[in-house]
Each structure stands twice: as structure tokens, then as C-alpha cells.
Amino acid sequence: MSQQVPVSGNARADDPSADAARDDGVHEITPDLAYRRLVLVNVVFYGPPNAGDRGWVLIDAGLPATKGRIKEAAEARFGAGARPSAIVLTHGHFDHVGVLEDVAEEWDVPVYAHRLEKPYLDGSAAYPAPDPSVGGGLMGRISPLYPTKPVDVSGRLRLLPEDGSVPPMEGWRWIHTPGHSPGHISLWREADRMLVAGDAFVTTAQESAYAVATQEPEIHGPPMYLTIDWDAGRASVQTLAKLAPERVITGHGRPLQGPEMRRALDTLARDFDVVAVPKTGRYVEHPARPEDGSAYREP
């Protein structure tokens, strides 16, 4: 089981009393960035309050059966009937694309993702199977029940430009942070050093049902049971640590900010093999990489 990298209380970016063990509130991180926790995963909303129709962007698309809560949060923040201008995906795992097909169709919006995620978003390939042997917690043990089949938004899919820009998000750039998935990206805004890290690393012990419920802030590597290339995952965390972010929101856990967060992230980057990588596991010994096409085909 991985070790935690704890952070002190002043690393929290929001009031924990307003967010503890809840999934029913929209929480602002910066004036134009907010998130809502949906059971075990975060969705992120980019755009100022009351931005109106097409004035905002959805980052990731939650779990299955959370469409109503995503729409409710969007209307509360941006206005009645406000649709996004686009959906941007950090990656295509089931807990980040749970309602993607439905909301993309209803809102009539493009979906942006890295080119290496395309097979999992156009219906042509399934992700490698989860590894329930790693992590030691309930969430990991039940991971074989998680869907790995792709969604199909091929008609709306747009590949992110190679120059690192994010067309619907001026001032942001995407950074390729593979390991958890082949085309995983993180989003970075230099102006205020804001990082949307997806699952490149997370701020809770995602393998543990107790940690998922309590959301005690800790810096961890990517969720172990779905991470398929630990060498790439290490390089991705090191890349993000070098940015020295001021604030970070990850796919799982609370947003964090400040020097204590940076120290914890630096520790994770430095000691990744000790604190993040399982001692044994399917993908520890045999990473699954995009060039291994057969490993990615749906059975």
C-alpha cells in the first residue's frame, strides 16, 4: 500500500467545514474556477459566475447518473439554461466521462482531449483492466467492477492542438501527464499558477473508502488500481512539481494551496517510488503503453 504525504491545515484551498464529506455544493477555487464533488470524483467549472449560455467550460464529466447534479451546479453558477462552450477532458476513465455522451449531445458541444485518449472516446478501444491487487483498500479491491469500455463521442471529439493551447480556455495550456492513462493531461494557467491536475496525482487516498468519505487532505500518486505505467506517472508528477503551483485541484480530494502543498508535492516527486508505486502489481512489472495496441483492444 502507498504511503501518504500529509499536508498541514493551511494547505487547504477551501473551508473544510463547508465541504467535509459532502457532494452537494459548488465550491469556488478562484473567481473563475469552481468544482463540485460527486461522490468520489470532482468536476470542474471554468468561467465567471453568471457567465450565461456558452460562457463557461466543463472539465471532466463525472460518474454515471450524475447528469442532474452537474446541470444543477452549472445553472446555479452560470444561470438558468446556461450551456458550456466546450467540455475538456483530463482523461477518459469511467469516473470522468460518466455522463459525457448525454451532456455533450444535450448541450451540443465539442469535446476536447489528447490524441492518445481518442480510442477510448470514439468507441474503438477499452482501457486495460484495473488491478485490484494494489493499494490495499476497498476502492481498489472492487475495481474489477468499474467500467473500462469506451464511450463514443466521435462526432464531437476535437483533439487538443499540439502547441499546448486549450481553444476554449484562453490563458491556459495543457500538459501531457501520462501514466494513469496514455493521453492524460493536466491544465495549467501561468498567470496565477493554477493547476488542474486530473488524476496525475490526487489529494486523498483514493484506494480507501474511508479516505474518500472523510477527504482528509494528503498528497498521493495517481489512483493505483487504474494506473498502467508507473515510469510515466513518476515523470508526470515531477513535471508538475517543477511548475511550483500556487493552487491545485485534482480529480479526487479537496483543492489545496500554498507552500505546504508545494512541499508535499515536491516530496511526492522526489520519493515517488517509495510513496506511490506499489511493491508488486500487474502494471508495475509490465506497463501498458500506447504502442502495445493489443493491450488496449476491447476483448
UniProtKB/TrEMBL annotation:
Region entry Disordered, spans: 1-25
UniProt domain Metallo-beta-lactamase: residue ranges: 40-252
Pfam families documented for this protein: Lactamase_B
Top-rank taxon, per record: Bacteria
Compositionally biased spans, kind Basic and acidic residues: 12-25
Record InterPro entries: Metallo-B-lactamas, NDM-1-like, RibonucZ/Hydroxyglut_hydro
Name of the protein described by the UniProt record: Metallo-hydrolase YflN
Organism of this sequence: Methylobacterium iners
Lineage: Bacteria, Pseudomonadati, Pseudomonadota, Alphaproteobacteria, Hyphomicrobiales
